[in-house]
Every structure is written in C-alpha cells, then in structure tokens.
User: Which sequence fits this backbone?
C-alpha cells in the first residue's frame, strides 16, 4: 500500500543512522518486506498513490480532520488531481485517516402545533435554473459555555448561498423572521419563489406566513419526520459544524 511504501522509503533514508531492524519495529513493518521493497521498482500507480496520499494528509490537517471520503475527493479534484471516491476511500482506510467529530444534540423542530401545514412543493427537487426560484430555511443550534445558541438560515438553492441568517439565545419565532427579512432585503425576490422549510412552529406561525404571503412566496413544507425533504440546508449545517463549530470551544454566545 501507499502507507507501507512511505514507511519503507523512510527506513531506506535513515538506515545509515539506525539499524534496519530497529526502524522496521518502529514503523511496524517486517525486514523481509523492506528487502522485497528494495529489490523491486515502484509501479506508476504506487507512485501516484504516494502523491495523492500526501495531498490527503494535507487536506485532512487543513480541515481539522473533518473531511470524509466524498468531501476529500471533491477537494482533491478541485486541486486538479484525477481521483475517485474508491481510491480516496482506500488510501484513507489503509492509512488510518479518520474523521474526528464531537457533538451535542438539541431538537429544534416543534411540529406539535395547531398552525396550518403547507404541501411539499419542492418534493426533493433541489435544482434551480436561476437565482430566487427556490429558497430553503431551517434552524440549528450551537453549544457554548453559556448554553445553546440558535442559528436560522435561508439558502438560495440555485447557488446554495446563505442569503439570510439570524442568531438568538432562545428559540423564538422572530429568529426565523429576522433571517427571512435579511434574505428578502438582499434579493428582493419576484413573486412565485418557492419558500421551503420544515413544519416547525416558527415557520407555520401566522406572523411568518403573513410575511410570506405579502411578498408572493409559494409556501412549501417537508413531510412529517422526513429530514431528506430539506437535505440541502441540513448539509450546510453539517458542514459548518464539522469544519468549524465542533473544532472549537465557544466560551460565549457572542
């Protein structure tokens, strides 16, 4: 494997300083394997694996050990490397490169209410041909030493850009409204833009729905208990938590 080849190369580079037997024990390889490595040339694929593995280790460090196989593959492809998911998965597995994540759980969706529920117009079709055709919103949470901080966002599904956001120390209805107001002020969307959320009381409230109606939105809501119906926003929350929030200790909400 690429990992073994790198260990053998290390032993070969330092064999004049320490004994081969000692280096093999430290690197957890056999002397017979080292001798076999020296007697045969490295293949083109093995050389490529070593180059790719170096990039994987670098991105693993830069991402604070948060990139899994799919995201790692995307990052390396953007760097110009011709790699696939299987190869990256194999190199990460063989070299014990793992994701490190920690989290606290907090429920944010309160669907036990008497407000009206809108149909699911989006129906898991997250594609859009132009900006301001489909928006999606949701609320998540961040743990701090002072307690929970709630984050509400609105994404434009065309670019997946966050176009509105708000934070609060309490799960109040104005949290979602403030995020939506920022998005409307930034984009001034045309009538007919689909606005998709879950069935939480913050989004089903009369105040929130009244504002949507005022600006001509088509209201769409996820099916009960189906997180995949709003997976674009869930993916955003997963990324920001894995790559930033869970990597630090936040002393205050500010």
Assistant:
């Amino acid at each position: 494997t690429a990992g073994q080849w790198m260990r053998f190369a290390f032993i070969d580079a330092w064999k004049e300083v320490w004994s081969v037997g000692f280096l093999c024990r430290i690197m957890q390889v056999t002397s017979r394997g080292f001798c076999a490595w020296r007697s045969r040339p490295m293949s083109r694929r093995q050389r490529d694996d070593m180059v790719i593995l170096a990039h994987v280790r670098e991105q693993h460090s830069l991402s604070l050990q948060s990139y899994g196989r799919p995201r790692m593959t995307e990052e390396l492809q953007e760097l110009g490397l011709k790699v696939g998911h299987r190869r990256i998965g194999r190199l990460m597995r063989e070299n014990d490169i793992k994701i490190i994540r920690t989290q606290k759980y907090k429920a944010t969706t309160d669907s036990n209410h008497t407000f009206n529920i809108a149909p699911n117009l989006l129906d898991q079709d997250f594609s859009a041909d132009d900006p301001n055709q489909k928006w999606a919103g949701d609320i998540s949470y961040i743990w701090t030493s002072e307690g929970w901080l709630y984050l509400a966002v609105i994404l434009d599904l065309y670019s997946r850009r966050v176009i509105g956001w708000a934070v609060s120390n309490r799960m109040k209805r104005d949290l979602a409204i403030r995020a939506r107001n920022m998005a409307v002020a930034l984009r001034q969307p045309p009538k007919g833009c689909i606005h998709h959320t879950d069935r939480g009381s913050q989004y089903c409230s009369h105040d929130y729905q009244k504002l949507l109606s005022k600006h001509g939105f088509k209201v769409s809501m996820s099916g009960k208990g189906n997180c995949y119906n709003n997976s674009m926003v869930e993916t955003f929350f997963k990324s920001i938590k894995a790559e930033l929030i869970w990597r630090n200790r936040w002393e205050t909400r500010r």
Observations:
- The first strand starts at residue 134 and ends at 144.
- Residues 111-115 have pLDDT under 50 and may be disordered.
